[in-house]
UniProtKB/TrEMBL annotation:
PROSITE patterns: AGC_KINASE_CTER, PROTEIN_KINASE_ATP, PROTEIN_KINASE_DOM, PROTEIN_KINASE_ST. Phosphorylates specifically ribosomal protein S6. Seems to act downstream of mTOR signaling in response to growth factors and nutrients to promote cell proliferation, cell growth and cell cycle progression in an alternative pathway regulated by MEAK7. SMART domains: S_TK_X (SM00133), S_TKc (SM00220). Pfam families: Pkinase, Pkinase_C. The keyword ATP-binding applies. This is Ribosomal protein S6 kinase. It comes from Gadus morhua. The active site is at D183.
Length: 465
């Protein structure tokens, strides 16, 4: 997706065929009057809904980052009028300044269109103006799993088992589509209004990683990064199972397995130190953590061709009916207490107290810069079907244990620009003036610190990006 593709086109040798005489008999047909029609998104996708910023009413600020904001919005025009969504607004001018940020945006947009799963956030619309990109996502009003973990300190094993089970199914689905996630952590796991998880933030994903394929990009969040990413020797989908083990340890002890006062020391611990498991964990929990946190990716549970099926068979999950879990027939251990669809009590009041304003779009980009966002516009098939019939959010300040390093994600240092976004809506129009919806045309044996307490301390904060 964010990489360049070389295509070899085979041609047939037609030298011998030139000597042959081809006799075609054409039956007479009535002359049919024809009309020449230009193929555009307007003519090919006649039922597609045209969407722009004016179709949404801003309700509340849910988050804010260096590249834009996330709003809770209500749709006020067209299909699904009255429904609540999350609207992620990104400034093009800031994104195009850095190739890795362009790669992040491209990856998120394209994967969200491609992937559909009960435990992965849904993209409903994507559109753009001259200076901004808009992603309309389902509003996950339960907030981050991290916030729930902060409140509880640690999760009991049955609670952790539920969340880890849903996450395992989501990762397995990504892997079956040749996608590795590479940034699993509590901040990227949201809860919907029922309490089920949804993976968000797909900017560090890598596509086309099937059996035997590897990639070498150094990326992720240090505390959850697998050793093979840190050593830059090449990695595959097994890195996600290491991250699952680190997340499991975090859920059940209150901290990731390897932490230190700075990034270098944290990396040294991940590469060299043995893991300390608290005595209160059950035998099955200890065994699963150990097998997921194998430093050798070839020995790690989930590294075989069976992928997530090996993990699903582990005794830790023996009480789970995977079919029931996938179909959301298992009651979540925690259900957010929400008064309405517009309830934002699960989000940080630092943001929700702000007045929601989408600043004027007065940025002018060159034609070359706009080409980086060609094909961005999207309307989900489910929306189009409903017309026929009738939430990764920018991270904020983090609370951290005193002895741990900031969870600063490491993104690809270099990125080679690819072609336009792959899209189900190939054609796009130049932004019309004034009020019309704008859809401009434009990838060693030393032990770690012992666990002092099975709780999550709220001390120093660190900012992501």
């Amino acid at each position: 997706m964010a990489s360049m593709f070389d295509i070899d086109i085979e041609t047939e040798d037609v030298s011998e065929a030139e000597d042959e005489v081809c006799d075609f008999t054409v039956a007479e047909t009535d002359i049919v009057q024809t009309e020449e029609v230009e193929l555009t998104s307007a003519t090919v996708n006649r039922d597609s809904e045209r969407v722009g910023p004016e179709c949404f009413e801003l309700l509340t600020v849910l988050g804010k980052g260096g590249y834009g904001k996330v709003f809770q919005v209500r749709k006020v025009q067209g299909g699904q009028t009255g429904k609540i969504f999350a609207m992620k607004v990104l400034r093009k001018a800031k994104i195009v300044c850095n190739a890795k940020d362009t790669a992040h945006t491209r990856a998120e947009r394209e994967i969200l269109e491609t992937v559909r799963h009960p435990f992965i956030v849904d993209l409903l619309y994507a559109f753009q103006t001259g200076g901004k990109l808009y992603l309309i996502l389902e509003c996950l009003s339960g907030g981050e799993l991290f916030m729930q973990l902060e409140k509880e300190g640690i999760f009991m094993e049955d609670t952790a088992c539920f969340y880890l089970g849903e996450i395992t199914l989501a990762l397995g689905h990504l892997h079956s589509n040749g996608i590795i996630y590479r940034d699993l952590k509590p901040e990227n796991i949201m809860l919907n209004h029922q309490g089920h998880i949804k993976l968000t933030d797909f900017g560090l994903c890598k596509e086309s990683i099937h059996d035997g394929a590897v990639t070498h990009t150094f990326c992720g969040t240090i505390e959850y990064m697998a050793p093979e990413i840190l050593t830059r020797l090449g990695h595959n989908r097994a890195v996600d199972w290491w991250s699952l083990g680190a997340l499991m340890y975090d859920m059940m002890t209150g901290s990731p397995p390897f932490t230190a006062e700075n990034r270098k020391k944290t990396i040294d611990k991940i590469l060299k130190c043995k893991i300390n498991l608290p005595p209160y964990l059950t035998v099955d929990a200890k065994d699963l953590i150990k097998k997921l946190l194998k430093k050798s990716s070839a020995q790690r549970l989930g590294s075989s061709n069976m992928d997530c099926l090996d993990i699903q068979k582990h005794p830790f999950f023996r009480h789970i009916s995977w079919d029931d879990l996938l179909n959301k027939r298992v009651e979540p251990p925690y259900r957010p207490q929400l008064k309405s669809d517009e309830d934002v009590s699960q989000f940080d009041s630092i943001f929700t107290r702000q007045t929601p304003v989408d600043s004027p779009d007065d940025t002018s980009l060159s034609h070359g810069a706009q080409q980086a966002f060609a094909g961005f516009t999207y309307v989900a098939p489910s929306v189009l079907e409903s017309l026929k019939e009738g939430f990764s959010f920018e991270p904020r300040a983090r609370t951290r244990r005193q002895n741990s390093s900031p969870r600063t994600p490491i993104s690809p240092p270099k990125f080679s620009m690819a072609g336009p976004f792959k899209s189900s809506m190939e054609g796009e129009h130049s932004p019309p003036p004034a009020q019309a919806p704008a859809t401009a045309s434009l990838d060693n044996g030393s032990a770690s610190q012992p666990i002092r307490t099975p709780a999550r301390n709220k001390k120093q904060k660190a900012h992501r990006r």
